[in-house]
Amino acid sequence: MQTICKILLKLLGWKAEGGVAPEDKCIIIGIPHTSAWDFVISYLFYTSIGGSASVLIKKEFFFWPLGFFIKKMGGVPIDRSRGANVVRQTVNLFNEREHMHLALTPEGTRELTKRWKAGFHAIATMAKVPVYLGSFDWGTKVITIGHKMELTDDASADIKRMKDFYRKKGVIGKFPEKFTTEY
């Protein structure tokens, strides 16, 4: 599958940079998230470099035949109904597994938003896992993982540092009007 993903990524015009996160458990941030295609490109990328990542997806999407393919691509059903605690569910997943590279996007939507969600921060802190900053830049068609971010006790300040990192990097989403690093 690794070779197939390398070929598909190349045929689509993408260049992969970086390698698989070295820890058995971590969170990989994916920015910018402006299209459902980000999931496909990210899957092709991480598989092409020899990795296997999980992605949280609403449990409602796990019906036949779609659910079969989503699971094969690392999809993990998550209950987002009223009263469900997504952070707790995710921390439990980390505690239950020996290996888990979880891809998350703090934007939380494919629509334009200035307010990035801090759930990744709570999950990383509670599960005691590191956070890596990855990006899929539709402007340059370069997808990467590499920068390990040390978290502090201040989620808002850490999100601000992340936004500064991505602003300096100059990443562009598939739909640029749906991405901002403004505070």
Topology record:
Blueprint: H1 2-11, E1 15-17, E2 25-31, H2 37-48, E3 53-58, H3 66-72, E4 75-78, H4 86-96, E5 100-104, H5 119-127, E6 131-137, E7 142-149, H6 155-169
Parallel strand pairs: 1-7, 2-5, 2-6, 3-4, 3-5
Antiparallel strand pairs: 6-7
Characterization of this structure:
- The structure is a single chain.
- The chain is α/β, with parallel strands linked by helices and about 180 residues long.
- It has one domain.
- The chain contains 6 helices and 7 strands.
- Strand 6 and strand 7 (about 140-150) form a beta hairpin.
Give structural attributes.
seven-stranded mixed sheet
* SS strand fraction: 15-25%
- Number of alpha- plus pi-helical segments: 6
Q: Helical percent range?
A: 25-40%
The first-to-last residue Cα distance is 40 Å
Strand order of the largest sheet: 1-7-6-2-5-3-4
Task: Please state the average pLDDT score.
Answer: 94
Q: What global shape is seen?
A: globular
Number of strands: 7
Low-confidence stretches: none
Most strands sheet = 7 strands, mixed
Provide the gyration radius in Å. 16 Å
Number of domains: 1
Sheet/helix structural class: alpha/beta
Q: Name the helix and strand elements from N-terminus to C-terminus, one letter apiece.
A: HEEHEHEHEHEEH
Summarize the structure.
With 183 residues, this protein is of the alpha/beta class. It has helices spanning 2-11, 37-48, 66-72, 86-96, 119-127, 155-169, and strands at 15-17, 25-31, 53-58, 75-78, 100-104, 131-137, 142-149.
